[in-house]
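Worked example 3 (structure in, sequence out).
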């Protein structure tokens, strides 16, 4: 039995998103065409794959079986095609999500090299400091700075960014330079938007602890976090890589009381069978970022 690969790709996206509307938007096609693809696939297989309600799409038992094998099947089909395109470079679209700082300062400046080698490759760079659901957003590759708690992602850690405590010269002139943990009780931190209250994390020689702090400002992205510190609005705890560009604007304080290192992990959303173009982009990102991380990061 044979069936249309495009229809299988549409089925996978609909099944993962549980929505024809979202799948059609990500695939750049009308909703009716996405529905027609799935109906064609169901007709070819002689099985109902999805149940549709007014708000959500559910997999049938047959759909569950197909979804478990579809990624590896599609990847194998792409590999077979790649055997005859080995000399023609990569082709197709890869959607990559990166933190703003890493996208802006490290990845985008080097993209001309990658695209010159693979002119038929298309990249969507989603630069954001907000953690979005990679599968739901249709991403192929994500770089996570911090703990990863997303089922369905596969990848590896490429390093751990050591942390540093910083304040601006103007802040220290106004509030004084803290020398001890006790001194921090008279200081402010810039609060990075999370579910928790503002704290100062530190290592006490045995374990990492959090000291509750006061904050006059809460921000929700890394650029604003840095800018608030430079403006003298409070103390921040930053990953050390990349901070040399602020050497005249930020002063390191309390170097013996740093927060725990943050893991840097590169992941994809294709299970055990990532397409060749996705693997190649991940290899390029790893080769590009590992030296940056290793300069100021404890090796794993």
């Amino acid at each position: 039995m044979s069936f249309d690969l495009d229809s299988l790709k549409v089925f996978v996206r609909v099944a993962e998103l549980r929505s024809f509307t979202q799948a059609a938007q990500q695939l750049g096609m009308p909703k009716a065409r996405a529905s027609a693809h799935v109906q064609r696939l169901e007709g070819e297989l002689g099985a109902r794959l999805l149940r549709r309600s007014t708000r959500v799409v559910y997999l049938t038992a047959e759909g569950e079986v197909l979804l478990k094998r579809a990624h590896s099947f599609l990847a194998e089909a792409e590999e077979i095609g790649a055997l005859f395109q080995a000399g023609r470079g990569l082709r197709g679209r890869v959607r990559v999500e990166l933190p703003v700082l890493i996208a802006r300062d490290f990845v985008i400046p080097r993209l001309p090299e990658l695209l010159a080698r693979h002119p038929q490759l298309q990249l969507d760079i989603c630069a954001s400091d907000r953690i979005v659901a990679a599968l739901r957003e249709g991403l192929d590759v994500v770089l996570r700075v911090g703990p990863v708690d997303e089922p369905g992602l596969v990848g590896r850690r490429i390093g751990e960014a050591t942390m540093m405590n910083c304040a601006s010269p103007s802040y220290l002139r106004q509030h004084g330079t803290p020398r001890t943990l006790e001194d921090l009780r008279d200081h402010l931190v810039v609060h990075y938007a999370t579910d928790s209250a503002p704290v100062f994390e530190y290592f006490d020689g045995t374990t990492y602890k959090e000291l509750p702090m006061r904050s006059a400002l809460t921000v929700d992205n890394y650029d604003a976090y840095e800018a608030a510190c430079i403006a003298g609005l409070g103390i921040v705890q930053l990953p050390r890589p990349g901070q040399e560009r602020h050497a005249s604007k930020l002063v390191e304080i309390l170097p013996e009381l740093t927060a725990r290192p943050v893991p840097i992990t590169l992941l994809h959303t294709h299970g055990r069978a990532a397409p060749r173009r996705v693997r190649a982009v991940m290899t390029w990102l790893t080769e590009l970022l590992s030296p940056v991380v290793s300069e100021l990061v404890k090796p794993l």
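Notes: The chain is about 35% helix and 25% strand. The longest strand covers residues 91-98.
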